[in-house]
Task: structure prediction
Amino acid sequence: MMKKIIIAGGGHAGVEAALAIAKLNCKAIIITMDPTAIGRMSCNPAIGGLAKGHLVKEIDALGGIMGYAADLSTLQHKVLNKSKGRAVWAPRAQVDKIQYSKYILDFVSSNKNIEIIKGEVVDFTVNHKKSINSIILKNGKKFNCNALIITSGTFLNGLIHIGNQTYPAGRMGEKPAIGLTESLQKHGFILGRLKTGTPPRLLSKSINWDLTEIASGDNSPNPFSLLTDTRKEINNKPCHIINTNHKLHKILNNNLNKSAMFSGKINAVGPRYCPSIEDKMVRFSNRNSHQLFLEPEWINSKQIYLNGFSTSMPESVQIEALQSIQALENVELIRPGYAIEYDYTPSSQLKSTLESKILKNLYLAGQINGTSGYEEAAAQGLIAGINAALKISNKPPFILKRNEAYIGVLIDDLITKTINEPYRMFTSRAEYRLSLRSDTAYLRLTPKANKLGLISKEFYRVYSKFEKDVKKIKKELTTPISIHKTKGPAYQFLLNNSASINDFYDYFSILKTMSKNSLFTAETDIKYQGYVKIENKRVNKIKSMENQIIPDTFNYDSITSLSNESKQKLIQVKPETLGQASRIDGVRSSDISILCISLKKYNVPRETL
Result:
């Protein structure tokens, strides 16, 4: 009989988890309060962005669905950060939210290894080995399972705030999830509260579009997914830009006491890197204006997402402030902006597989782990789904390290650092970002995915051609040529920042037959090779410490020379390796040296590389 894994929640994390489980020949059961909301883009109408685009490419390289679905529903595609080095170039797509969700729902529903049940998980039971064996729904129904993945998003005891108005909700128009928090606490989990927000949705016809600035996408963009046909033209629908002004700032400042965040109604911590508009007024009081983006939520949408204006002000204040902008003098709101606070579990309670350290076969993924964003949630769901299926099939876990993927950085940060605000991925968090470029995601991860059985034969065929073409190009460019009386291997000329691979078309006709992707990756590999060598040396130095195992049963109290703060942190987090221990906030480097000596003394083995 096929083993069953239940997923509580059908958002981006739940979807990727279910699809991975299905590919690994286990039964995935998604339990959601609203089956029609599976894969719904509940906030902004975009996929990717700074560092998030790297995550989407890695999800695609591992057989996930997010990138392909985004390509099919793209309204505009753009590579951000192009004024900086290629390692931090970030693909982002403005997408049709309706088309995206419909594709995801249809794709998930048609999978014979996935079942969707309408309901709300409120509790779970464990056996004598402290392993999950069943879940309980709000209506009292009980379902046996081999593992449980909780992907509850912002729904755990969710509370919406608009000015002085407060009411329970998981997101606008949807009920919160009540019961799971209490069940987790009953089993020893520590929970906290976080806050996030969303901007108002504007009625398109109430905007004076002639007074806005057009923001177009790239003319010939590369899609997210390796499977997307690059010959097919991608939409390039424009977005628009407006700016805040002194009058708007004054209106918001005069009404700060009415903001749920500033009036003290919300105690939870909000995202520092994606603050509300009123938060911007206070933190950046010297700024005369802030840029806002008018983004359509679907093709020919009457509903416009006002990116950059997240707020918990009363609706009347939101309207007054926005109408101070010339282009919005007659603006009407379809829905006001609001803040939402919800329960989350500090993720130091999890292993690198995203399995709980407290209960066996219980996995957590997405905003319940303190993250913010579709992409971070999807990445965690994918890893949780893979590992849940592998574990109940008695196979080794799948763990990505920091030097292997942004997903590895994301999960390592979550389980070792103190997460007291919604975590957002940034390229600056990845110390190996020169190697972890978005274009190298397939070379780094697709062979691993293929070994596990996560990708189709067609995907692997396309990947193999890409890999071979990159090697062919690099080999071709070892041929000596002469430019401006200087002779040498062609690749040496590419090391000049002003040189481009396009400069060699007359020398090597084979280049004209290659795809944009393979040319870009080969060229960037050559340009970055010196820096990557330095980075790899650093990786190798760290590797011995990174892979030193710390057993669950290790007694930190037995090491009397450890500082009290380090001892408390190590006991609380229970790091799996010495590398993880070194990244825990509050653990001194001197104490890591002491711990290293103690582990050698007790003959603790190293992890097999």
Remarks:
- The first helix runs from residue 12 to 23.
